[in-house]
Amino acid sequence: MRSGLHRHPVCDGLLSSPWYFRPAVALSPSILVLLLGEGMSVLKREPPLLHREGPLNDPELLLTPPLPILSIDKIFSLPGHAPTGHSSSSSAEPTTRGRWSFIDCFLRLSEQFMVVGLLQRLSEKLPRVVHRLSEMMKPQVVFVLGGPGAGKGTQCERIVKNYSYTHLSAGDLLREERSRTGSEFGQLIDTYIKEGKIAMEETMKSDEKKFRFLIDGFPRNQDNLQGWNNVMDGKADVKFVLFFDCSSEVCIDRCLERGKSSGRTDDNRESLEKRIQTYLQSTRPIIEQYEQQGKVHKIDASRSVDEVFADVKNILENQG
Ligand SMILES: Nc1ncnc2c1ncn2[C@@H]1O[C@H](COP(=O)(O)OP(=O)(O)O)[C@@H](O)[C@H]1O
Question: pTM score > 0.80 for this model?
Fold first, then answer.
C-alpha cells in the first residue's frame, strides 16, 4: 500500500508544504500576471489533480514557481508523522502505519480539493476583481472651478497642505509653458487649450506615486472638456467638482488686489472683465453639465479663507 502511495502523484504533490498559505501567496503574482495582460490562461487551466502520471506540483496549477516536492519518504520523516528510516521497499510494513498514512494523505487531498475549488471559484471572479482593482488604481481627479479670483489657488494650497493631493493649475502650467524660453509649445499653446491637450496626461503620468489630483481652472470650456474626455476617458476618474462661487465684483476686487504684488499682467480691470465674461459664457455651462451628473459641490467663496476652507474640508472628508 505504501509503495503505491509513494508512486501516487497526488500524494507526492500533496506532500509539498506549506499547505495553507501557499494559495494566498500564489494569488498575488497571478493577479499581477493578469494585470500585465497575460490573460487568464494560468487560472483557467484544468487542474490535473487526478492524473495518475506526472507531478501534481504543476507550477501552473499552483500558480507559483516550482516548489519542493516532498516524497512520501520525506513526509514520513516530518514531525508528527511516522518515524524515519522507513524504507519504501520494506515488505514488513505495518498495516496500521500504511492506513494511517493513507488517511493522512486523504485528508490532505480533500484540503487540496478545497483549495483548488476555492481557486476555481476565484478564477471565475477574477475578471471582476481585476476590473475593480484597475478602477481603484486609476488616478482620482477633482476639478476646481470658479471665476478668476474666486480663491481656487488659495484653497488648493490649503488642501495640498492638509490632504494627499497633487495640485495642477491649468493656468500656471500654461503660463509656465508660455514663458519657458525655447518652448516648442509657446506658439501652439492656444491651439492646445482649444483642443484640451494641456499637458495634464503627461503631468499626471510623471509620478506614479501621485494618485489624487486637484486640477484647478480646468476644464474651462467645451473644447477643454472634449479634449479631456478624448485623452483621459477611462484613464482617470473625475470624482467631483469643487465650485467656488462668488460674485463678479468680489472676483475683480480680489484680482486687482492680487495684481499689486503678483506681477500677473492679466490682473487689470480690462482683462478681468473679459475673463469674467469668458468664465460666465464658457465655464459656467461646464459646471452645469457636471451639476446634472450630481458631481458639483458648490461653496460660497465670498466668505473668509478659513470659512471657505471649513466647507472644503467637510466635502473632502465626506467624499473620502
Ligand atoms: N476667501 C478669500 N477672501 C479674501 N481674499 C481671498 C480669498 N481667497 C483668495 N483671496 C485672495 O484673492 C486673490 C485671488 O485668489 P486666488 O486663490 O489666486 O484666486 P483664483 O485662483 O481663483 O484666481 C488672492 O490675492 C488671494 O489672496
Answer: no
